[in-house]
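Title: Comparing notes on inverse folding

I've been comparing how different people in this forum approach sequence design from structure. To keep things fair, I'm posting one structure and asking everyone to reply with a full sequence. Here's the target:
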């Protein structure tokens, strides 16, 4: 009995040691699994953290362009794209309200804005180009000691909303009065000119230039009205995820551009007068009509033919395409933009009061006929340029300077193409096909029988 009891005790001890060893082994395995899981979790956490840091810190700080040593980072560019999208959306919405929510008319008048909103890459490129220009401008402005303060920005915003600190706005410069040319030929009969019939063929319209009528001035508003209007605008931007600070930076960039343009004009100078010409012209759509008009001029004189055509302007009923008109005091560049290089050359090189030969102006539009001009210069002299012409020359000067600056020291990184913001989003109703106007119902008119009197007859 004692021996069996001893064996039983030893067996129990062996089983206990075995269970302990198994328990220790299981514990080691469990610990290893836990460590592996913790390691995988830590690795996933690190990967996630790296992704978050990359998306929120590293990627927004990566440059999308470098301009003469200054980087344009992705964060700033994306904020500007969102601002531009918001501005376009607000303009479309305001146009829609003005047009009574007529989607068809909105698509007609704001088609370009809608297309830009639906083409993020093109919009992103335009914004990036604009920001590159801003860096170039601000660097050049700093070299010239030009700066724009927060007070300047505030004053510009106030003037945009017609608030002038309770004072009247500075009067706009008076446009240059156009002096009518002194007739060197037989004066044109007044009754002939006033009886012009409408034409069926579009022709360049002779622009008489600005008159001495003062430009309309802004009606000053009160401080309360300005603050209300500006707050409404900022609320619109805020609803689309755009901050007021971004709005102000855009205004600041515009002021820099204007002040640098003024500095460039002062440095390089802009001509305020130029040789200009006035001339009469007769134009036809066919060689045969032009030949006949020239023959008539040779048989009599230019003004007689011009007056005759002017009083019988072309139309569907006349069967003629001849048109007679006059262009007053334009530079050679203006004439070229209206009529082409050949007409401009004739206007500035031809003899005064002498009819030109037939000048063929080839059509640049497929399907349209060429034009045949016979002109006669009535005057040519150096004259002051209009304010609009001077402003155009100033902008051309600035653009030429800007293109020269962009030719060197500008690098664009293609990574921006995969990161163009698509928000805020334009309301989808502006992309729908407009509802067609319902056709008016056709009412069949019944055939009336004879009246009693007619029946009696």
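Reply #1:
Here's my take.
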């Amino acid at each position: 009995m004692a021996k069996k009891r001893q064996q039983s005790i030893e067996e129990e001890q062996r089983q206990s040691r075995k269970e302990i060893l198994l328990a220790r082994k299981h514990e080691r395995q469990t610990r290893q699994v836990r460590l592996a899981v913790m390691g995988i979790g830590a690795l996933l956490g690190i990967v996630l953290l790296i992704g978050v840091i990359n998306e929120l810190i590293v990627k927004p700080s990566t440059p999308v362009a470098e301009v003469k040593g200054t980087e344009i980072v992705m964060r700033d560019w994306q904020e500007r794209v969102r601002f531009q999208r918001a501005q376009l959306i607000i303009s479309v919405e305001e146009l829609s309200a003005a047009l009574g929510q007529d989607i068809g008319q909105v698509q007609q008048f704001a088609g370009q804005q809608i297309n830009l909103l639906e083409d993020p890459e093109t919009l992103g490129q335009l914004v990036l180009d604009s920001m590159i220009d801003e860096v170039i401008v601000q660097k050049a402005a700093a070299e010239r000691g030009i700066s724009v303060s927060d007070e300047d920005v505030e004053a510009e915003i106030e003037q945009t909303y017609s608030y002038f600190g309770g004072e009247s706005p500075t009067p706009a410069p008076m446009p240059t009065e156009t002096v009518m040319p002194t007739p060197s030929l037989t004066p044109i009969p007044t009754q002939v000119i006033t009886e012009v019939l409408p034409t069926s063929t579009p022709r360049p319209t002779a622009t008489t230039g600005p008159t001495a009528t003062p430009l309309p001035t802004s009606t000053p508003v009160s401080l309360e009205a300005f603050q209300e209007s500006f707050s409404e605008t900022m609320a619109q931007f805020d609803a689309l995820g755009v901050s007021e600070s971004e709005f102000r930076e855009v205004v600041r960039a515009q002021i820099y551009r204007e002040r640098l343009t003024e500095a460039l004009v002062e440095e390089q100078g802009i001509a305020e007068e130029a040789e200009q010409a006035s001339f009469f012209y007769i134009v036809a759509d066919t060689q045969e009509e032009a030949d006949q008009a020239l023959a008539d001029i040779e048989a009599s004189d230019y003004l007689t033919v011009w007056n005759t055509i002017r009083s019988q302007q072309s139309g569907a009923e006349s069967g003629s395409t001849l048109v007679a008109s006059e262009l007053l005091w334009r530079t050679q560049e203006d004439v070229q933009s209206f009529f082409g290089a050949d007409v401009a050359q004739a206007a500035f090189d031809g003899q005064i009061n002498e009819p030109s030969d037939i000048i063929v102006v080839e059509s640049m539009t497929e399907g349209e006929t060429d034009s045949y001009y016979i002109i006669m210069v009535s005057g040519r002299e150096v004259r002051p340029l209009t304010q609009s012409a001077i402003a155009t020359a100033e902008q051309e000067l600035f653009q030429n300077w800007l293109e020269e600056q962009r030719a060197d020291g500008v690098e664009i990184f293609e990574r921006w193409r995969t990161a163009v913001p698509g928000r805020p989003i334009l309301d989808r109703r502006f992309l729908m096909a407009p509802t067609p106007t319902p056709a008016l119902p056709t009412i069949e008119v019944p055939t009336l029988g004879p009246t009693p009197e007619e029946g009696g007859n």
